[in-house]
Amino acid sequence: MLSRRAELKRGRRPRTVGLLPPRYRFHLNPHSDVRYTGSCPECDERLGQRKLPLAVEVDQWGLITLPVVCRYCSACELLIAHQDELEDQLTALFERLDPLVIGNGYRVLGSVGRDGLRHEQDEPWSSRELSAALHDFQEYVQLEPPAVRALADVARPR
């Protein structure tokens, strides 16, 4: 899947799910031992915190929103969510709603406008409801943890 920027460079209109303008560059941090807390891994600006509803599509369930505390860099509009925290929230929610869904695959589609937290969390969103409230991500970003970058620099021949 190409990023929005890559699709625009190729002259294509990016595929979107949401009707609201795209927001944020998004990274889902898969490393439970690495936390982005101090400065942005891309521009070294100080990271802030932002709690916002993320739209998540869960296989064999549907679309839901979860209020997730993310790290945010206002300089490069980078939003970082920690995968283990997101999965803990999903597990807690589905222990109550439908334990058979726990462990299913999921995709984070984007952020939802303020009305997203008012939506009843016990039932999935319809595609039309979500589309009207969703801000797609501008792009999905893959970041290397600082420790991995440092090891790669040491191993690189000069």
Tell me about this structure.
The chain is α/β, with parallel strands linked by helices. It has one domain (4-144). It is built from four helices and six strands, in the order αββββαβαβα. The chain has helices at 4-9, 83-97, 127-133, 146-155; strands at residues 20-29, 48-58, 62-73, 78-82, 106-112, 134-140. Strands 1-4-3-2-5-6 form a six-stranded mixed β-barrel.
What is the strand and helix layout of this fold?
Elements (H helix, E strand, L loop, with lengths): L3 H6 L10 E10 L18 E11 L3 E12 L4 E5 H15 L8 E7 L14 H7 E7 L5 H10 L3
Parallel strand pairs: 1-4, 1-6
Antiparallel strand pairs: 2-3, 2-5, 3-4, 5-6
Provide the succession of SSEs: HEEEEHEHEH
Biggest beta sheet summary:
6 strands, mixed, barrel
Q: Report the count of strand segments.
A: 6
The overall average pLDDT, rounded, is: 80
Helix/strand class: alpha/beta
| Domain module count | 1
Report the portion of residues in β strands: 25-35%
User: What overall form do the CA principal axes indicate?
Assistant: globular
- Tell me the number of helical segments per DSSP (H or I, 4 or more residues long): 4
Unreliable sequence segments: 148-155
Rounded to an integer in angstroms, the radius of gyration calculated over CA atoms is 17 Å
Helix share bin: 10-25%
Query: What is the end-to-end distance?
Result: 34 Å
Order of strands, widest sheet:
1-4-3-2-5-6
